[in-house]
Amino acid sequence: MKLARILLASAAVLAMSLGSVQAKDTKKIGLAVANLQANFFNQIKQSVEDEAKKRGIQVVTVDAKGDGPTQINQIQDLLTQNIDALIYIPAGAAAASVPVKLAKNAGIPVVNVDRNADGAPGDTFLATDSVASAKAVCDYILRQAGGKGKMVIIHGQKGTTPEVDRSKGCAESLKANPGVKVVAEQYSNMWAQDEGFQIMQNMLQANPDVSIVFAQADALALGAAQAIKVANPSQKIVVGGFDGDTAALEALSKGVFDVTATQQTQKMGRDAVANAVKLVAGEKVPAVQLMDATLTTKENVAGFIANHP
């Protein structure tokens, strides 16, 4: 009995020792990004890599270029590279849960950023409170239009977390403004500027008297503003975006469009690394961590151009 107790005690000490070694060591993180053509995701990538470098952690980054099946293959490959944690921005809503399940089956903690996987969330989810921020943007553009007029909405990628939440937020604003009528809505595939241009061109042809546009990303808003400039309508068209992309903030300062919600992309990247390290160490973190975005107009944009949060 005495020998058994000694062996059990030794095993417990060894287990504690191994646990403490694991707690200290996050050597490599996999970063799976939806699409590095988007400035928003590039900002997060740069922040993740900068924060990891400060901590002496290697980052292996893969870019799905907006394609879900490609991303699944990329993450399968990442899981063979001895990563300690996965920071994951899903490339789309379809099959977004697959990489999370693959990582968890391999014992790898997952930090989801900006988009969560329906039915298989990561160990934690970091994002902007898109419902509240989209409501603020739509409140602003509806107020600028005098609370009445015809409105169009250019959605992001259908079914993704930000698209769903931004739609909810703007719907709350519309509910309080019965004088505004939504006359057209369309989804984009890549949240891209050329899509915004083409969609807005078509919307203007069908609805030449539209006066309000909510584009669910700044790239879409820039495309919409370009289409409006080409069409040269007689009426003022108020355009709202979302993200606080660096190029869009410069355009906003010049009056190209009217308002956006600036997300804390640098903080998202830093927090993603910090949460990955905590999860590897066995610490508990909140399941959902939402951040504020700041309503940004020509009046306050200079501060965000100088120092993006």
TrEMBL record:
Predominant subcellular localization, coarse grouping: other
InterPro entries noted in UniProt: Peripla_BP_I, SBP_2_dom
Compartments in which it is found: Cell envelope
Signal peptide: 1-23
Pfam families (alphabetical): Peripla_BP_4
Gene3D superfamilies: 3.40.50.2300
Annotated family: Belongs to the bacterial solute-binding protein 2 family.
Protein name: Sugar ABC transporter substrate-binding protein
Source organism (scientific name): Rhizobium dioscoreae
